[in-house]
Amino acid sequence: MKGGIFCVDEEENNQFASVFNKVQPVRGFEDVLTQIYNAIYSNQLKTGDRLPSEREMASMFEVSRTTIREAIRVLEAEQVVEVKRGVNGGISIVEPKPDQLGRSLETLLHFRGATFIELAEFRTDFEGKTAFLAAERATHLETHQIILIAKKFIELTTDINTPWEQLIDLDLAMHEAVAYASKNQIHIAIMLGIQSVLRKTALSLESGNDQKFREQQAIELMEIAQAIQNRDANTAKLKMAEHVEGNITSKMNQSLTDLK
Question: Which residue numbers delimit the HTH gntR-type domain (predicted)?
Answer without folding.
Answer: 26-96
